[in-house]
Design goal:
The complex is a heterodimer of chains A (328) and B (285). Helix content of chain A is 75%, strand content 3%. Helices cover 70% and strands 1% of the residues of chain B. The chains are: A mainly alpha (328), B mainly alpha (285). The interface between A and B is large, with 43 and 47 residues.
Chain lengths: 328, 285
């Protein structure tokens, strides 16, 4: 679908966009969209490529934003150092989830990841951290502000930084999903039993998928903390995990680029129309239910199925033609 | 005076009504062989219906009847149009039913607002030891126990045979002339009605919010993971135990900690018993 130059043309348009329209609001919407699209792609590494359907992918994302906020604000680390530390924190959180989820199969992975992320969300929403000097309480629903080295980043700079981040992380995830390891993960997603029979240590590879996907989610979370400047309980919410799963289901699970395009399109459309958050979540949910109803294997999976069926029919027609020619 | 007897009694009442909801979820798992993550949304739907009825002067357990009817209609629609066609795909079911739950939560927020609502439960009776016996609680407990008794009777009698046969082997059920698809979506609708009835009965118990259904959903998940579909009695006792646990956590810590405690129980259960808890449809994809 994205073969050839279409992707390059899209990137070119996005590079050109800030030069055409100086509207700061639209730039801000797209900047957030780039970071969430990278997050959706990281969902796809776990849920699409490796086939471990997680409904708690917000956990590593939120772990990274909270790590950024706590380390920079309470521990006084400079922001780049805190952001660099947030990625391994997210990867460790993902590895912990993976350790528990790896022996499970099917919907139980979804249940477990959902339960863990919801527990983290409740704790973050209810817990108040005390700041050092002023004794002023941060945390709870209001979240914790991140100490950033800049006061008001120019929207242009944030836009191009986020776009660069999206391109870089998508390229890295694409490389990972097409590597030998990615192929093994796809085998596990296709049939865990067959993979195991071929000598793949599936628990270790599932753990790897959770760790790598969570590290990328953490990178997106660190970028989000830098852009928004605040870590809130919403970063750990079920709605965020769900948005990523929706983008992946519509864009095509296992394609990495598809979820990026879908997430960016949804975010730009729904946020650009400045709908209230409740309507936005409802739109996501409706899109997902309709998609799953008519493409239960995901859009990419169903299209691939139909293409395979057409190819088989074409093949049988061609072989029949050949037989006719051979006949008397 | 120790607050413990009061907490235990309230937990017992709440747990009895949760059992009604959990039994519905177990029925869906047994007959339709899917995990329904939208079950909590039907619970909140029931509570909102009870609130709307109370605002119109119909207080008390009578609200459970319209709540169940509305939920049955939506449940049949969801079962027929979404769950049945998508049930063989392991990705579609958990994500799709979660989508349905989020859709309801946001719709409820638009319709009734995000702030908590309350239904007046009436004056409690004074019991022994200074314990207040809440009327709605006693009614909810007795009504749920009666409905569960009816379910047990149904499952052990001739009209309940299609449910058990479809749960056991759908091909044999189809070969003896049963409409398997209809059994599935009717079961789904009936189970959703049970969740909504539980929600309507428990509406006076606490704040009615769009996300109030998440705690009973997690509680039901624990119950079906441990007890399965077969034994209605085990579902009942386990729900009461978890209802008391939730109430104890809510009193001694804070209400949101009872949700966290139940989430931790689910995670621990899944981690401890990873293989073959119950059979679930979906080997394709």
């Amino acid at each position: 679908m994205f073969r050839g130059g279409w992707l390059a043309a899209g990137i070119g348009l996005l590079l050109l966009f800030p030069l055409l329209s100086p509207d700061a609001y639209l730039l801000d919407v797209l900047t957030t969209g780039f970071l969430l699209a990278s997050f959706a792609a990281s969902w796809d590494v776990v849920g699409g490529v490796a086939g471990q359907v997680t409904l708690g992918h917000a956990l590593p994302f939120g772990a990274a934003t909270y790590a950024c906020a706590l380390l920079s604000r309470l521990a006084g680390w400079p922001f780049p150092l805190a952001a660099a530390a947030a990625v391994p924190v997210a990867a460790a959180a993902g590895a912990g989830v993976g350790l528990l989820a790896a022996p499970l199969s099917g919907p139980f992975v979804a249940l477990l990841t959902l339960a863990l992320a919801e527990a983290a969300h409740e704790v973050a929403a209810g817990h108040a951290f005390l700041s050092g000097p002023g004794g002023y309480a941060w945390g709870g629903e209001g979240g914790i502000p991140v100490a950033l080295p800049w006061v008001d980043a120019p929207p242009f700079a944030s836009y191009y930084a986020a776009l660069g981040f999206l391109c870089l992380t998508t390229w890295a995830m694409l490389r990972f999903s097409r590597s030998g390891t990615g192929l093994i993960l796809r085998a596990i997603a296709g049939s865990p039993l067959t993979a195991q029979a071929s000598g793949v240590p599936i628990v270790r590879y599932k753990l790897l998928a959770f760790s790598v996907g969570s590290a990328f989610a953490g990178a997106a979370g660190a970028g989000f903390a830098a852009h928004v400047g605040r870590a809130t309980a919403g970063d750990l919410s079920l709605e965020l995990s769900f948005q990523a799963a929706t983008a992946a289901a519509v864009g095509g699970r296992g394609t990495v680029v598809g979820p990026v395009v879908a997430a960016l399109a949804f975010h730009a459309l729904l946020q650009g129309l400045s709908l209230p958050p409740a309507v936005r979540v409802m739109a996501y949910a409706s899109i997902l239910m309709v998609t799953l109803r008519f493409f239960p294997g995901g859009v990419a999976g169903t299209v691939r199925e139909i293409a395979a069926r057409l190819r088989v029919r074409e093949g049988s027609r061609r072989s029949r033609g050949r037989r006719d020619r051979v006949g008397p | 005076m120790s607050p413990l007897p009061q907490i235990l009694l309230d937990g017992l009442f709440a747990g009895g009504a949760y059992a009604l909801m959990a039994a519905g979820m177990a029925l869906i798992l047994g007959v339709v062989k899917v995990i329904n993550l939208s079950h909590g949304a039907f619970f909140s739907l029931g509570a909102y219906v009870a609130y709307a009825m109370a605002a119109r002067g119909v207080a008390g357990p009578a609200a459970a009847v319209p709540a169940a009817a509305i939920a049955f209609a939506f449940g049949v629609f969801l079962g027929k149009s979404f769950v049945n066609p998508a049930r063989s795909h392991p990705f579609a079911l958990p994500v799709g039913t979660l989508a349905c739950a989020l859709l309801f939560e946001q719709a409820a927020q638009l319709a009734w607002g995000p702030h908590p609502l309350a239904v007046d439960g009436g004056v409690p009776w004074a019991g022994p030891l200074g314990v207040a016996v809440r009327r709605w609680g006693a009614v909810a407990f007795l009504a749920s126990a009666a409905l569960l008794g009816g379910l047990k009777l149904l499952l052990s009698s001739r009209p309940g045979l299609p449910l058990k046969l479809v749960a056991e082997d759908e091909e044999i059920a189809a070969s003896v002339g049963m409409d398997v698809e209809a059994v599935r979506y009717l079961t789904f609708g009936g189970a959703c009605a049970m969740a909504a009835a539980a929600g309507a009965l428990l509406a006076p118990a606490g704040a009615i919010t769009p996300t109030m259904g998440r705690l009973p959903l997690v509680l039901s998940l624990i119950v079906v993971i441990v007890a399965g579909m077969e034994s209605v009695g085990a579902v009942f006792l386990l729900s009461i135990a978890l209802g008391i646990l939730g109430n104890v956590c809510a009193f001694y810590l804070s209400p949101q900690w009872s949700y966290v405690a139940l989430l931790c129980v689910v995670a621990l259960l899944l981690a401890a018993r990873p293989a073959g808890i119950v059979t679930v449809a979906g080997r394709r994809d």
